[in-house]
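Figure 3 (text version): structure tokens given as input.
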């Protein structure tokens, strides 16, 4: 149902390597680039994510209660995505772990403060 998600940035050059690393772990790369934004994903594939400077020219701000979740293939990939995020300047919002009902997840923020999640669904515990 979701085609793609756009997150705001105030410094595209600074934020792009963070998403390059996350996308590489998920097996995709940059699919569109503009002077004001970059989109990662695969044409015809699952929903992608874009990092864009706001169209109105105002500063990008973090949405309270907004989060983008990346579906991982297994718990090990959740841990790798979390480690990649932190190694590229992201901050921890909750380390990898079982959250209940077979939901294994890690939470982190990008360099602009956007909240992200890597998760996988297993058998309910």
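Below: residues designed for each position.
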């Amino acid at each position: 149902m979701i085609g793609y998600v756009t997150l705001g940035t105030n410094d595209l050059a600074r934020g792009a390597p963070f998403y390059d690393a996350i996308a590489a772990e998920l097996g995709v790369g940059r699919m569109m680039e503009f002077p004001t934004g970059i989109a990662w994903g695969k044409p015809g594939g699952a929903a992608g994510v874009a990092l864009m400077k706001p169209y109105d020219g105002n500063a990008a701000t973090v949405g309270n209660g907004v989060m983008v979740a990346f579906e991982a293939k297994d718990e090990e990939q959740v841990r790798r995505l979390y480690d990649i995020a932190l190694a590229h300047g992201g901050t921890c919002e909750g380390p990898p772990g079982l959250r209940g009902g077979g939901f294994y997840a890690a939470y982190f923020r990008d360099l602009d403060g956007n909240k992200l999640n890597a998760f996988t669904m297993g058998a309910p515990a």
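The helical segments are 12-25, 75-87.
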